[in-house]
Amino acid sequence: MDNEYFQNKFRTSSIRMNHWNYSWPAMYYVTICTQNRECCLGEIKDGQVYMTKIGNIVFEEVINVPKLRRDVLLDDFIVMPNHIHVIFVIKEDDFGHNGRDTVNRVSTDRKFGFVQPKSLSSIVNAFKGGVTRRCHKNNLDFQWQANYYEHIIKNDEDYARIKEYIAHNPVNWIKDRNNSVNIK
Q1: DSSP for 80-129, written as a single string
Q2: What is the tens place of the pLDDT at every residue in 94-140?
Q3: Are strands 72-79 and 48-51 parallel, antiparallel or unpaired?
Q4: Cβ(123)–Cβ(69) under 8 Å?
Q5: Nearest to 1 by CA among 12, 17, 10
Q6: What's the topology of domain 15-99+106-172?
């Protein structure tokens, strides 16, 4: 990856696809990790996830996403000890528009530092903010990492592979790259 120099610091280039508008209707697989991959959301015992208070807040907030946003469906998710995997579906609007026919659409979900409304970033930011606010309101020390991983689900095989990965994530926790024992 090319490095960019910004405000006297090096940073890596965005992993987002620059030809894709992240407010377009699609299925998006997202992984969001806790700050420093701290295992504060729960623990895995015998292939089952046992959530902490913070993990329960994460669970409740991800369930709330489609209740708060008519343009989003929640397909599947799993709360792990230090991250969450979720499939969000951004739907067409009530008028049958899919966002692709709008003139002057930006090619990414961020332009000039602002999060585009109804984009994947706005969904993730609202979710992360909701969890953080509830944790702080309940005097629970919690932070998310600054960014998130996303993948646009391209076809049925891709979807099936991701659904299987989500379903088996607790059983495979011992080998998971997000498990702190595997992070070097």
Answers
A1: -SSEEEEEEEEPP-TTS--STTSTT--SSSEETTEEPTTSHHHHHHHHHH
A2: 555 555 444 334 444 444 455 567 899 999 999 999 999 999 999 99
A3: unpaired
A4: yes
A5: 12
A6: Alpha-Beta Plaits (3.30.70)
Nearest to 166 by CA among 77, 88, 80: 77
Residue type for position 72:
V
| Residue 56, token pair as written in the block | 């329960």
Q: Model-level pTM?
A: 0.80
Half-sphere exposure of 109 (CA within 13 A, CB side): 19
Which residues are CB-neighbours of 170 under 8 A, at least 6 positions away?
A: 44, 47, 48, 49, 78, 80
Q: Which structure tokens are listed for 157?
A: 């095989």
Q: Which two tokens stand for residue 149?
A: 């991983």
